Amino acid sequence: MDAPKAGFRQRVFAWALARFNTRYERFVSEHKRRVFADVAGIVLEIGPGTGVNLRYLLPDRVRWMSVEPNRFMELYLRQEARRVGMPIEIRIGTADALPVADNSVDAAISTLVLCCVPCPQRCLQEVLRVLKHLHRARSCAEGEPVAVHSRPGDAAVEATGGWVPP
User: Fold this and answer.
1) Which of 156, 159, 160 is nearest to 125 (CA)?
2) What is the mean pLDDT of residues 131-135?
3) Which domains does the chain have, with CATH numbers?
4) Which residues contact 131 (CB under 8 A, 6 or more apart)?
């Protein structure tokens, strides 16, 4: 299991992400708008970073919570949440051991997380564990969506460009 860290590198990463991610966000904004358009209910965002995905969610349709391993992201997350009028709940943890109850979220989203975790398969297993049945997860990994569909007795991960086994 990867452990949350709170050192100098994490502080610098949070600061840099908050200041230098604008160009990438402009590039993927239309894609994110489509991918996250119908997300509603209790939404878990895994690795939200500075909160750039909050602008694509509707505060009146979403109860948003996150699992973020970098404690220094919290300041930026809270600033963005205030800017878009979204109440938020931040939990410090990692994608391979989500501090979230089984079958408790309607949707799970992430952006550029599966390419950074030590074991993407374990992360996806955790997503399936916390999702309520008949709901989904969305990930924008390098601009490509990953949809995780959860049904009683059946789990599949559809990824643009290939199959990722749960």
Assistant:
1) 156
2) 69
3) 8-163 (3.40.50.150)
4) 103, 105, 106, 107, 108, 137, 148, 150
Better-predicted residue by pLDDT, 41 or 148: 41
Question: Where is 144: in which H helix or E strand?
Answer: strand 144-151
Q: Is the Cβ–Cβ distance between 49 and 24 less than 8 Å? A: no
Distance CA 54, CA 83 (A): 10
Q: 74-84 vs 8-20: helix axis angle to the nearest 10?
A: 30
pTM (global) more than 0.85: no
Q: pLDDT confidence of 21, banded at 50, 70, 90?
A: confident
Give the DSSP per-residue string, 32-47.
Answer: HHHHTTT--EEEEEES
